[in-house]
Amino acid sequence: MEPTRCGWCTSSDLYKKYHDEEWGIPVYDDPTLFEFLILETFQAGLSWITILNKRENFRNAFDHFDYKKVALYCDDKIEELMQNNGIIRNKLKIKAAVSNAQAFMKVQDEFGSFSDYIWKFTDGKPIINHPKTSKDVPATTPLSDEISKDLKKRGFKFVGSTVIYAHMQATGMVNDHAEDCWTRTK
C-alpha cells in the first residue's frame, strides 16, 4: 500500500520521489541551494513537474549548476542555451541564471556562504508548519516577501515572493508537509 503523501505530488512517480526524498529536507550546501534557485526561477509561471521532467537537461545545459561557470556565460553560451529544447528557452530567465550566479558569489563573499546568508532568515532552523492539506499552504509569507526584497536589492532576478517561498520549501527552510503525510514520521 502506498504511504499517505501531500496531495500535490501523487500524479507521477517522479513527483513522489522528489516529495519523498527532497522536498522539505533542509539543504545547507551552496551548490544545491544554487541548483534549486535556478530551477525555481525557471519554474516561475510554470508547473514544478515541468521543471522536474527537465531537471537532468538543465543540469547538463548549466554545467551541473556550477555557479562559478554559469557566472561566466557569454552571449554565445546564452544563444546555445536558447537552442536547447531540453530546457525552458526563455532568454530573460537564462540571462537571470547568469546574473544570479554572479550575485550568488557576491553573497558568498559577504557572508562566507550563500547558506549562511539564506538560513540567517530562519536562525538556521527550518520553520515547521502543520497544514492539514496542501490547500492550507500559502504561496507567499511575510518572510518570503522579506527574502525576495533582499535578494532583489542584491541584484537577483526572477526571485519574487512566490518563487522564494517555493525555494524555501524545496530546500527545507520551511516544512509544509501535510499533517497526515508519511514524511512527518521519518
From TrEMBL:
Pfam entry (one): Adenine_glyco
InterPro entries in the cross-refs: Adenine_glyco, DNA-3mA_glycosylase, DNA_glycosylase, Tag
NCBIfam families linked to this entry: tag (TIGR00624)
Identification of the protein by name: DNA-3-methyladenine glycosylase I
Gene source species: Flavobacterium limi
Taxonomic classification: Bacteria, Pseudomonadati, Bacteroidota, Flavobacteriia, Flavobacteriales
Gene name as annotated: tag
